[in-house]
Amino acid sequence: MSGIQIKNLYKIFGEDPAMALDLVKNGMGKTELQDQHSHVLGLQDINIDMREGGIQVVMGLSGSGKSTLIRHINRLIEPTAGEVIVDGVDVLGMSRSDLRKFRAHKTSMVFQKFALLPHRTVQSNVEYGLEVQGISSSERRARSKKWIDRVGLSGFEDNYPSQLSGGMQQRVGLARALATDAEILLMDEAFSALDPLIRTDMQDVLLELQSELKKTIVFITHDLDEALRIGDNICILRDGGIIQKGNAQDIILHPADDYIKDFVKDINRARVLRIDSLMSDDMTNAGTLKLKRDTRLDDAARQMQEADVINAQITDASGKVIGSITLDDIVNSMVEKVEVESTV
Amino acid sequence: MEWTEFPEMEREQLRDLRKAIDGGFREFTRAYGESIENALYPVEWFLKHFENLLLDTPWPLVLIGLCGIVYFASRRPWLTLGTFVGMALIGYFGMWEDAMKTLAMISTATLGSVLLGIPLGIAMAKSDRVQTIMNPVLDVMQTMPSFVYLIPVIMLFGIGKLPGIIAVIIYAIPPIIRLTNLGIRLVDKEVLEAADAFGSTSWKRLTNVQIPLALPTIMAGVNQTIMMALAMVVVAALVGAPGLGQPVLKAINNQFLFMGVSAGMAIVILAIIIDRASQAYGQRLQSHREKGH
């Protein structure tokens, strides 16, 4: 089985993690463990199945363990217990040299604060992973050039990172990660340090590249908007444990608890929800306008307004009609957000 | 019991202890002195040949060479001009030969300190245990009056250039060790993590990330080491090292004010030239840190 499987993963920071692990397995919580035994519960019974070629977002606030989790995939952090399986191989069973090869060829990583080498030019930063792989300098130059072009930094090859803006520096970070041709891309709050506009820009760059490259991406963020925008699958982490897994619609429509509800209430639902979440079987008044099932609500509302209709048919990818939707339903579901807010 | 007098060790015991340690070290000197001296022969060889090179080359060539080195290290015309004037003054006041000997000695001492100090600093940065052991040793090296460690050095090597240079290295090496350690420990953790995440070996991590990023701090250590080596010139002269320290010693013994001051000024001129040139070089090395916009 390909992709990434994480099974029963625990991480406890402290002097005697094995002892603490028993306590946690017997039901002790994070606060108790910290107060009574001064061990920090980093991750607790994490199980995720990450699909090959998809974007898996891990969302959580600071201290939720999300950065700890991503570092287990390439074993920058050793777990206390559990399994991490990538493409059917147990990462935790690798020898040191196997692990180095795995990191050099199978995974690459993008960091929150870019982590570029300040004494090297853009070009030479992008070449770093290839250098570690032992690739000849002429091929390194050709491949790095290609990726510098792809992230839109042509002409900046000979600049030093300190001469670039944050957004441009992170493009270098992305090019460096992509240049190694690793199948797995680990992105640790990669866009969190950027201004909101540039962040959206970078999300577009990533989504555009991904539509072509189909890498397995693990994306860490504390921003739910970002998570909903780019994640095929999202898992929400709190105090080291997973509290909900699902796609963007699941999370907005069925928040698992009040904690997530709290997050979701500020989200622009129309931009995330697809019309098939509001689909009805009633075809009596469906009108003639046809919309694809994965159209977002805001898009659908605009198209219906432009066509001056209040009903539309919903079709699947092949164009077959599978149901209908009314403008009223769309408006109601957008307004729902306001209701939640006013009751809080 | 008297409380005004501190209970002392018995006189005989103290004498025995003293005898045992002095005798022991003398035995050690007799047994290993020669092999240690032989082991350090490359240092002496380098010093001798470097000194001869500076003395046998015609002075205009040396002067041009020095100005050239200063210019290419610093790219500062005024500093280069200052070097020319300063060195010319030293020569005009009859201290050219002593200045060359001093230059040879501090260059050798600095080279020795760097070659020995940087690996030690790296070892200290890699292991907390090494750091715990090294720190008090470096404290002793830096605070122990230099005259005190001259005693065993003289006992081992006698009087001459080698004991002089050993004394200078002992005194001048701590900053380069400490600052190499500090520089490497201060390297951004995220950049190190990035190096690991791309599968770097620990050697690649050291040479591609840790040393380049620590270089400004290491260069500050080199600068400190050179300055401390210069400060030891007079003390080293006491055990027979040649150079600008000799006229100072002579001036102290005979109360020759002019001789003392002029030799002192010559040391100051050398110190300023080397300090400014090495600092400017260090700054040029990190020009990539400048903000471009």
Account of the 3D structure:
The complex is a heterodimer of chains A (344) and B (293). Chain A is 42% helix and 22% strand. Chain A contains 15 helices and 13 strands. In chain A, helix 14 packs across helix 15. Chain A starts with a strand and ends with a helix. In chain A, 38% of the residues are buried. Chain B starts with 10 loop residues before the first helix and ends in an 8-residue tail after the last helix. The mean pLDDT of chain B is 90. Chains A and B meet through helix 4, strand 6 and helix 6 of A and helix 9 and helix 10 of B.
**Number of helix segments of chain A?**
15
Structural class of chain A: alpha/beta
The CATH topology of one domain in chain A turns out to be: Rossmann fold
Name the CATH superfamily classification of one domain in chain A: P-loop containing nucleotide triphosphate hydrolases
The H-and-E topology of chain B, N to C, reads as HHHHHHHHHHHHH
Question: Which fold name corresponds to the CATH topology of chain B?
Answer: MetI-like fold
What is the first-to-last residue Cα distance of chain B? 77 Å
Strand order in space, largest sheet of chain A: 6-7-8-3-9-10
SSE arrangement of chain A, N to C: EHHEEHEEHEHHHHEHEHEEHHHEHEEH
Biggest sheet statistics of chain A: 6 strands, mixed
Instruction: Describe the sheet with the most strands of chain B.
Output: none
What overall form of chain B do the CA principal axes indicate?
globular
Shape of chain A: globular
The CATH class of one domain in chain A turns out to be: Alpha Beta
How large a portion of the residues of chain B is in β-strands, by DSSP E?
A: under 5%
* CATH hierarchy: architecture of chain B: Orthogonal Bundle
